Amino acid sequence: AQSVAQPEDQVNVAEGNPLTVKCTYSVSGNPYLFWYVQYPNRGLQFLLKYITGDNLVKGSYGFEAEFNKSQTSFHLKKPSALVSDSALYFCAVRDGYSSASKIIFGSGTRLSIRP
Amino acid sequence: ETGVTQTPRHLVMGMTNKKSLKCEQHLGHNAMYWYKQSAKKPLELMFVYSLEERVENNSVPSRFSPECPNSSHLFLHLHTLQPEDSALYLCASSQDVRQSTNEKLFFGSGTQLSVL
Do B56 and A46 touch (CB under 8 A)? Predict the structure, then answer.
């Protein structure tokens, strides 16, 4: 069975500081991993994905995520936070052998960047 | 804009009402999805359609009835809902549902549903 966990409901960071939003996963096969962002009153938007290859994946708006197979983690990072990064972030995973309809989302982490 | 449009944006209904949520995508995608988003809970996949055929139905109560008349339109018909059904209902589309390394979902802005 697949699962994904986002252990923090909320992360608070000062503008200009680095940020990390944590995600751990469990799949039986090779993981396909995703991050989505949801701004207020909007649907989810794709940020980045890991399928294979380089463990450090770069995405939209200066975000990146690091795939760590031994720790089964896919943490989202940004070197310098902006107030406009404040939003709800979802990690998602699916088993590489299953269909795209089997993607599983986490419960979301609310990122708050203070000026 | 993501190319996925949902109407209405907000809906308040009584438990005896019948209403429908509408989703339209302008991306030429073959797959469409309904998700339920409740606070502090994982996104729940409700239904998946591929080329107008339902391919996934995740134990959703029968008071939710989906309809996909063509690959661009998706409806969620609602009747005799319960207060716990209050949530944000998100529609999404993707190129297809088959295994694909390029797969990503495009979401609408959602319908915020309140059941009184």
Answer: no
CA–CA dist B49, B56 (Å, integer): 7
**Residue B2 to residue B90: CA distance in whole angstroms:** 13
Which residue in chain A is spatially nearest to B94 when comparing CA positions?
Answer: A100
Pairing state between β A44-50 and B18-25: unpaired
Quick one: tokens of A87?
A: 């939003």
Q: Residue A101: what are its φ and ψ, rounded to 5°?
A: -75, -10
Q: What is the pLDDT of residues B78-107, one digit of tens each?
A: 999 999 999 999 999 988 776 555 578 999
Chain A contact present for B46, CB below 8 A: no
Question: Could you tell me which chain B residue has the CA closest to the CA of A44?
Answer: B107
Cβ separation B42–A100 shorter than 8 A: no
- Do residues B24 and B73 lie in contact, with contact meaning Cβ atoms separated by under 8 Å? yes
Instruction: Supply the mean pLDDT for chain A.
Output: 92
For A55-109, the pLDDT digits (tens) are 999 999 999 999 999 999 999 999 999 999 999 999 999 876 666 567 889 999 9
Length of chain A: 115
- Nearest residue to B44 via CA among A107, A87, A113, A25: A107
Query: Under a CB-based contact definition with an 8 Å cutoff, are residues B97 and B48 in contact?
Result: yes
DSSP 8-state assignment for residue A96: T
